[in-house]
Amino acid sequence: MNPKFFIYFSDILDHQVRDDKGRRVGYVHDIALKMNGEIYPKASELIVRRGLFRQRYARIGWDQINSFDEVVKLKINRSGIQFQKKRIQCDFSLCIDILDQQIVDVNNHKVVRANDIHFLRVENHLYVAHVDVGSRGLVRRLGWLSWVDRIVKLFSPHSFFLAQEDFISWKN
């Protein structure tokens, strides 16, 4: 399978994480970014969640990820992963610092909400390229995009919603 060059955060959020032997470790909970002055920050750690009622969290370095398509596959064994009760605190993470935050668009003088993150995929690394502030991004994050697209196509096949992507470039 040929990997996509661009990936939305909502497309990998809550995906299964499996160890080097294919055993389930948990689910993607968040991604930490390395903020080192680059124009496009690079994903540095994967935050994994396991458990339903008594959730536990673990931090996995991005260098320990083998692939991340339908399932995130790790290079390490699950016995080497340390989970903790408290949510992992990072210097900068997508769920805490970007998603659902207000963004001031100084060009159009308006306030918008960050609904999703658009990554550029280079080999096995992810770089934040855009913040999706459109209604399509919110619908995608809720997991309703395919249903809403079908309904919109049924009633209005040439709707602006079907082609609309409302991004703010990360460098701006």
Strand content: 35-45%
The biggest beta sheet is recorded as: 6 strands, mixed
Structural class by SSE content: alpha+beta
Q: Indicate the mean pLDDT.
A: 87
The arrangement of helices and strands along the chain is EHEEEEEEHEEEEHHHE
Task: Describe the 3D structure.
With 172 residues, the protein is an alpha+beta fold. 18% of the residues lie in helices and 38% in strands. The protein has helices spanning 9-12, 94-97, 135-142, 145-155, 160-163, and strands at 6-8, 16-18, 24-34, 42-50, 56-61, 65-68, 72-74, 102-105, 110-113, 116-122, 125-132, 167-169. The strands form 3 sheets. Strands 5-4-3-2-7-6 form a 6-stranded mixed beta sheet, with no helix packed on it. A 4-stranded antiparallel beta sheet has the order 1-10-11-12. It has a two-stranded antiparallel ribbon with strand order 8-9. 26% of the residues are buried. The mean pLDDT is 87.
Note the topology.
Blueprint: E1 6-8, H1 9-12, E2 16-18, E3 24-34, E4 42-50, E5 56-61, E6 65-68, E7 72-74, H2 94-97, E8 102-105, E9 110-113, E10 116-122, E11 125-132, H3 135-142, H4 145-155, H5 160-163, E12 167-169
Parallel strand pairs: 2-7
Antiparallel strand pairs: 1-10, 2-3, 3-4, 4-5, 6-7, 8-9, 10-11, 11-12
Supply database-style keywords:
5 helices; globular; six-stranded mixed sheet; four-stranded antiparallel sheet; 172 residues
Summarize the structure.
With 172 residues, this protein is an alpha+beta fold. The chain is built from five helices and twelve strands. The strands form three sheets. The chain has a six-stranded mixed β-sheet with strand order 5-4-3-2-7-6, with no helix packed on it. The chain has a four-stranded antiparallel β-sheet with strand order 1-10-11-12.
